[in-house]
Design brief:
By secondary structure, the protein is an alpha/beta fold. Helices cover about 45% and strands about 15% of the residues.
């Protein structure tokens, strides 16, 4: 499932309208940024380009151009299956293909490695989180698949191969979203295949916390969406104590199986986790929280220099967005109004990838901000002794007192943080420690 909105760092060459030679590539209508070229560079199926075509251009391109291997994304997967000379059993079964191979004799083979990619993710998830092979964990158990599109078909096939009893849930089908827990109280797994919660419309979720919690036998949640890293339904699962995973491993695994087909030899499946980890390190936001005056802005600048990530001070971004400083809004309209506006700014930047974000000291006072941070980031708390904090230029610190704010907020900072950094005495020292601890 190829998303069309990826981080700016994921740039790739394009072969528009088939101009220029393509050895390997991704064929679609509107591709935006994609991680596929980066993934295939590591796998060895290069050069890999993005090929954007209109519907009437697809057949001539596929049949006449001298490419070696193509991945195909929406809306051309059905067309790709029809254009092939030969189809694997997976393609015959589903009627859609995401991978094409041009054989040395010129004939075209269609395969569907989305089935294999999701199968890889499913097997790892079941072993890691459910303590058993997928066939044992899911055989004869109900699995709810949200959505009925192309990604859903691949997911259904992989689940059926494990012996699961698949129930497809959609807005228009016989199985609707309302009352799922009452109709399917024994469901073992939920898999989201809809685009709900995909960047930039995140962290939306097709099911809320209560819907997941009401399914008493539910053992986990998977999402084929991979941007953001923690989708809305994965965050909901976390809040009710369920293991979850989004779809980056599926993206990488299906690429590995495509690359194997094109190159004609097996690749080490350990590459899936290696590439997955590398992409996550590069795309994760690092989000700094802590008391007002603890040094988040200066540390953020230094961390930006160390890691090459853009730095955004959310107080500065607030002023740019609204034309007034945080202090002006607090003093003129009150803190509650400011907090709502602050969340709007946080939401705009937290859905991006690969940034360093320095937050205001009170960001932890609105619980909804935690999900915004966690969807694509790791949270680092800067812990500076209270006696070293200044209230100058900070109306809330000045009005309520640093000690009172610390009593209210310090437990929240620690609860929200993935790592807590005791301030070293210099912004660069703090940044180096965060970089070391988080591996960024």
């Amino acid at each position: 499932m190829e998303t069309t909105d990826m981080p700016e760092s994921a740039g790739a060459g394009r072969a528009r309208d088939g101009r220029g030679p393509v050895t390997y590539g991704l064929l679609g209508r509107t591709l935006g940024h994609s991680w596929s070229p980066r993934i295939h560079e590591i796998l060895g199926s290069t050069p890999y380009q993005l090929v954007e075509l209109e519907p009437d251009e697809v057949a001539p391109y596929v049949r006449e151009r001298r490419w070696r291997g193509l991945n195909v994304t929406i809306p051309y997967k059905s067309h790709a299956a029809q254009l092939a000379d030969e189809r694997t059993t997976r393609v015959e079964r589903l009627g859609v293909a995401n991978t094409l191979l041009r054989r040395p004799d010129g004939l075209i083979l269609a395969d569907n490695t989305d089935v294999l990619g999701f199968g890889w993710l499913l097997r790892r998830f079941c072993l890691r989180e459910l303590g058993a092979e997928a066939e044992k964990a899911l055989r004869d158990r109900e699995v709810l698949v949200l959505g009925s599109g192309g990604a859903s078909q691949a997911v259904q096939a992989a689940l059926e191969d494990c012996g699961a009893c698949v129930v497809v849930v959609s807005r228009k089908g016989p199985e609707r979203y309302e009352g799922l827990a009452e109709r399917h109280p024994h469901a073992a797994l939920v898999v989201n295949t809809t685009p709900v919660g995909m960047y930039p419309n995140c962290p939306a979720s097709a099911l809320d916390d209560d819907a997941l919690a009401d399914m008493r036998e539910l053992r986990g949640v998977l999402d084929v969406v991979y941007n953001p890293e923690r989708t809305g339904i994965c965050l909901a699962a976390e809040r009710v104590g369920l293991p979850s995973e989004s779809g980056l491993a599926m993206l990488v695994a299906q690429a590995l199986y495509s690359s194997q087909l094109w190159q004609g030899h097996d690749l080490d499946e350990a590459l899936v986790s290696t590439i997955e980890d590398e992409i996550r390190r590069e795309t994760r936001n690092v989000i700094l929280i802590g008391m007002p005056g603890c040094g988040k802005t200066s540390c953020g600048r230094e961390l930006s220099r160390l890691t090459g990530r853009p730095h955004v001070d959310l107080d500065h971004a607030f002023a740019e967005r609204f034309g007034r400083s945080a202090a002006e809004v607090i003093e003129g309209e009150g803190e509650p109004t400011f907090r709502v506006m602050e969340t709007e700014v946080l939401a705009a930047y937290a859905r991006k990838s690969g940034h360093v974000l320095s937050c205001g000291g009170g960001v932890v006072t609105r619980p909804e901000n935690l999900a915004l941070m966690r969807q694509n980031g790791v949270v680092a708390m800067l812990d500076r002794p209270i006696e070293e904090l200044s209230s100058r230029g900070r109306p809330i610190s000045r009005t309520r007192g640093v000690e009172a704010l610390a009593a209210e907020r310090m437990p929240l900072y620690r609860a929200w943080a993935d790592v807590v950094i005791s301030c070293t005495g210099s912004a660069r020292g703090d940044a180096l420690e965060i970089s070391r601890r988080l591996g960024v």
